[in-house]
Amino acid sequence: MTVASLVSDLDPFAPEVMADPYPMYAVLLKSGEPAYLPRRDMWVITAHDDVRAAVKDHERFSSADGIAYDRSRLPILFGVDPPDHTRLRRLISRDFTPRTVESWRPLVEQICTELLDEAVTGGDVDLVRQVLVPLPVRVIAALLGIPGDDVAQFKKWSEGVIEGFNANARLRPEAGHGPTDPEDAKYRQQAAKQALSAVSNISVYFHTLLDQRRSQPLGADLISRLLAANEDHLRDNELVWLCLALLVGGNETTTHLLGNLCIALMEHPDQHELVRARPELMIPAIEETLRYDPPVQSVFRTATADVEIGGTVIPKGSRVQLSFAAANRDPRRYSDPDRFWVERESDSAHLSFGSGIHFCIGAPLVRIEAETFLRQLFERAEAMTPTDAPTRIKSPTFRGIAQLPLRLIPRA
Ligand code: HEM
C-alpha cells in the first residue's frame, strides 16, 4: 500500500488510534506533508516547522470556531481572534508573569503537601482521583480567592464545566467511534448541556464575587487584581469568561501532564532511577514528558484562506488539526524522537504549550506544579508500584490518564 492510501484510511477517532496515536503520527510524518483525512473531513499538519508556522499564523488559521474538532463559538480566550483576543489577553497576562507566578510557589507547596501526605501511607491509591485531579483545581480556587466554605461547591461546578468543555474533545468512555457515531454525538450533546448549566451556575457565582471584590478588594487574589488593572474596561461578562478560561485551560491539562509523567517514569525504569539519583534532572524530565507525551496533543483551527504548505493547498474553510504531539516526534527535528530520554539536550524544545498569540498563559504555573509534585512525591515515596493497569482517557486531542491505581511505598 502506498503512503497516500494509508493516509486516506487514517482515523484519529478510531479507538485503537486514541489508545496509542503515535503509530499514526509516524505514518503522517513519513511524507511530512499536510494530509486530508476524508473520514473526518479534516486536514492534519504534523511536520514540526509547519505546525510551528501555522500556530503562529492566527490570521490564516483562526481559533474562532473553537479549538476542538466540533465547531463552537464561545467568547473564551482560546476561542477568539484579535482584536478581542488582544484586549482579553492583555489583562490576564499581567498576572501570569514569571515573577508573579513564582510568588505562588509556597501555595503550590502547601497544597501538594496536604494531598501527598494523605496519599502516601503505604496503602493502595488511585493517584488521579486523590492527587492529580484536586491539585490544579485547589490551586486555581486559591488563586481566585474562593472562600474556604465555597471550595467544595466550586470544585463541583468547575468539574462540570471542564467535563462539558472537554467532552467536545473526547468520546464516550466506554466506546468511541467518532463524532458522527450517534451514541458519541448524544454523549457530547449531553455533556454540552451539562457544561452550559455548570457555566451558568459558576457565572452567577463569579458575578457575585466580582461585586464583592469591587466593594471589598482582597488584594492579592486574581479577581481583585483583574478588577484593579481593568484599564480597557472589560465588561463583567468578559471577566467571567477569563476566569472560566483558567478553569477549562488549566485543570484537566495539568492532571494529564502529571499522569503522563508518572507513566513515562514507570515505563522507563532506567530514566526513573536517573531522575531520583540526580534531582537536577526533574525539570528536564517534565519537559521531556511534555515533548514525548503531551496532554494537549493538538488544537484545531479553521483556514480563513487557501493556504499552501510545501506544494499542498489547504482550502479556505477547512478544519485543520495542528498536531503538537506529532511535531514533537518529527525525526527532522529530534534525534531518536520515540525515545523518552531525560538527558536530551540541544533538541529538547517542544510545541506542547502552543506558540504565537495563544501560547499557554499557564505554562510557568504548570512547571511549578509539576516540579513541586515530583519532588514531594520522591521525598515521600521510595517506589510507585502499579496495582492494576492505568486507564487512559479516549480523545483525539487530549492524552492522559483517567485512573492510576498504585501502591506508594513510603520512605523509611
Ligand atoms: C500541562 C498543562 C498545560 C498544557 C499542556 C497546556 C497547553 C496549552 C496550549 C497548547 C495552549 C494553546 C492553545 C491554542 O493555541 O489554541 C494553551 C492555552 C491556554 N492555556 Fe494552557 N496548558 C496547560 C496548563 C494551563 C494552566 C495551568 C492554565 C491556567 C492556570 C492554562 C491556561 C491557558 C489559557 C487561558 C490559554 C489560552 C491562551 C490564549 O488563547 O491566549 N493552561 N494551553
Description:
The chain is an alpha+beta fold. The chain has a single domain (3-410), classed as Cytochrome p450. The chain is built from 17 helices and 12 strands. It has helices spanning 3-9, 15-19, 22-31, 48-56, 84-93, 98-102, 105-119, 127-132, 134-144, 151-167, 182-215, 222-228, 236-267, 269-277, 282-292, 324-327, 363-380; strands at 35-37, 42-45, 61-62, 124-126, 298-303, 307-309, 312-314, 319-323, 381-386, 391-392, 401-403, 405-410. The protein has a 5-stranded mixed sheet. The chain has a 3-stranded antiparallel sheet with strand order 4-12-9. A hairpin with an 8-residue loop joins strand 10 and strand 11 (401-403). Helix 13 (236-267) packs across helix 14 (269-277) and helix 13 (236-267) packs across helix 17 (363-380). The longest helix is centred in the middle third of the chain and has 34 residues, at 182-215. It is globular. Bound molecules: protoporphyrin IX containing FE. Residues 55, 63, 67, 77-78, 89, 140, 245-246, 249-250, 253-254, 257, 294-296, 299, 352-354, 358, 360-362, 365-366 line the site of protoporphyrin IX containing FE (HEM).
